[in-house]
Amino acid sequence: MRRRRRGLFWFLLWMALGAAAAIYFFDPLSDLIQRGRRAAFGPSEPGRPSLAPTIHVVLFFPGAETDLLAPYPAEVEQGKEPVQTVRNVLAALLEGPKRPGYAPAAPPGAKLRTAIPGPDGTLYVDFDRAFRAGHPGGAWSEYLTAHAVANTVVFNFPKHFEQVVLLVEGQEAETIAGALSLYEPLRLREDLVAKEAAQPAPGAPKPARPVAPPAQNPPQAPARP
Question: What's the average model confidence in pLDDT over 54-66?
Answer without folding.
Answer: 93
